[in-house]
Amino acid sequence: MFDSILVVCTGNICRSPIGERLLRQRVPGKRITSAGIFGLEGSPADVGAREVAWRHGISLEGHRARRLTPQLMRESDLILVMEPAHLRFISAMAPEIRGKTLLFGQWLEPQDIPDPYRKSHEAFDYVFGQLGKASQEWAYRLSQKGMKR
């Protein structure tokens, strides 16, 4: 049903690369990629994102930021964004895509996953924890067990 998932944040250097790698780990067999609304084309993941991921056994090696495009969105079965502003951006950019766009933190309280860019190690740790919990919830819901609820 959802074979291709696109994870979206603002710059595609902090939240979405981590979310992408966590989902790849937890939902094998799916095509999972990421992009940024204002993607910093070609940039590696932010050093804070790389460090927090590394501490949790995840590599962001090889990640290169890219900008969100209507084509990327059309090629995806499910688009997961970090905050309501991203939902609004996508709705304005490609209204027909809105129906397959949800918050990455859909199953959390609060649902928004804040941007840790240029913030403390603690901010990155918090965001990693939120992305970890959210990716576990998505993995369950995307599995056959979760679909039978």
Automatic annotation (TrEMBL):
It comes from the Bacteria. It catalyses: O-phospho-L-tyrosyl-[protein] + H2O = L-tyrosyl-[protein] + phosphate. SUPFAM superfamilies: Phosphotyrosine protein phosphatases I (SSF52788). CDD domains: LMWPTP. Gene3D superfamilies: 3.40.50.2300. Its EC number is 3.1.3.48. It holds the Pfam family LMWPc. InterPro entries: LMW_PTPase (IPR050438), Ptyr_pPase (IPR023485), Ptyr_pPase_sf (IPR036196), Tyr_phospatase_low_mol_wt (IPR017867). It is an enzyme of class 3 (hydrolase). Keywords: Hydrolase, Protein phosphatase. Residues 3-141 form the Phosphotyrosine protein phosphatase I domain. Belongs to the low molecular weight phosphotyrosine protein phosphatase family. This is protein-tyrosine-phosphatase. It comes from Enterobacter chinensis. The lineage of its organism: Bacteria, Pseudomonadati, Pseudomonadota, Gammaproteobacteria, Enterobacterales.
